[in-house]
Design a protein that fits this description.
heterodimer; A: 265 residues; mainly alpha; 11 helices; 75% helix; B: 262 residues; two-stranded antiparallel sheet; 2 strands; 76% helix
Chain lengths: 265, 262
Amino acid sequence: MRYVRIFLLHFQDAFENRSRSFVWFLLSLLNPLLVLLFWRGAFAGNAEPLEGWSYNSITTYYLLLVVAGAFLQVHIEEEVARRDIQSGFLSQYLTRPIAYIVMKFFTELPWRMIQGFFGIVTLVVFSFVFTNGLSLIYDMESVLASFFIIILALLISFVFKMIVGLSALWITEYSGLQELIGVIDIIFAGFVMPLALFPPFIKTIALFLPFAYMIYFPVIALLGKLSFIELLQTIGIQLVWLIGLWFIYRKLWEIGVKRFTGLGQ
Amino acid sequence: MQRYLRVYRKLCEMSLETLMAYRANFINSMGSSFAWGIFSFISIFLLTSKTTSVYGWKREEIILLTCAYSIMIGVFHTLFSRNFERMAEIINFAQLDTFLVKPMDSQFLLSMRWVNYTASTRVLLGIGFLFYFRRIIAIELNPLAIALFFVLLFFGLLLLYSIWFIVATFLIWSPRLSNLIELMYSVSGMTRFPGEMYKNASEYLFLFLLPITLIITTPIKFLVARASLFDVLSLLFFAAVLFVISRKLWKFALRYYTSASS
């Protein structure tokens, strides 16, 4: 019950800042739409599918990417690093009977939900604009599997960003690391173009990193690009990533919290 | 004018001293500038690997567009963007008074206070790639063409600055929306795509985005001898008009600024 209360309090705070949330959402809207416009030009003179990707599926991909970017791309690392660790607000969490990571999850979740809502509204609006319709999965088994993939993607994204935020316990100027991870994320999560269209070498690297499992695989799962077996394989790999990242987080937290010093909090 | 140049020189020196004092910050900043610079090239290489022509622009011309974008955005981030980020903070925490009471133009002080030398990495990247691709792109360069190209790039920079400043001015009325500045980074990213892309999407969208589509596209079109007189005059017109609007809007917005006993 207390977790529900914590969530509702943070939801109230996020809802009060819904205009800020909307601006953040515009950030996740703008880049996929730009690249989609680019692809429109690429397909203009050629109606043939490109390596199994028709203009319809590419359009659906980037529109789903808008929703995925809004809902699944966690941004808690900035608060963890700057506010909690560098400004010392971490102290208040250390004295509470609730795990720090749980508190942070309920801080971040409302923002994801509000921006995800904006994303879904955008998707619905665009589904009326594109009269050919969006190509999405409809069978119940695939929908259920995709639901699990989305939840696991959110959890992987969250734990990964918590690890990035904890790096501030060792690095005083962590923004360089944050920017570098941001760039790698954009490329290997499939924000530039579907990983299936990447050169083979880069595609292989992408499949060995967690970013594809945060954004790309949820999107292509909903697109119906994965068979049921492949959906289950994706869930399996996501579970491996989640467990691995969780252990890394636990270890970093145990070592890092001993280094933390908060003054006058 | 001389006073402003002397003050600006001093501000540049102070920014350099700060940079040298915090060396870890220097390395971090260089790293992130380099990463974003490389990203803009990687993304365009990936996108154009599957198509040789988009909206009448050949792959080589789009790469040239990216080189020009890297140069211009590098200069912009070096001179201005950090100031806009801090402007959001300054207005939100009611610290604008310290700028308003000084015997200098507040727009000048706010938008030119800090110089981010590490962002010049992107300029170097853009120039480096431009020289590397010059043979593939096969454009004939003569001193006059290069000089005029940089003149158009300057007006593109002025136009970009004016758009950013107009958006930042709205923070006076909505200090909470400090993340509008973050949005402007993505909006600036729109300039690296051909203007024809927006025209093809919608005439209304194109008209709304017309100033943005001129910033990089016009200098590049000039370089590859595809710019019309209308393109060049449009760029000059919008740069001048939007700069004047940015100044007028700032003066108007200051009437609504309320301090907090700073």
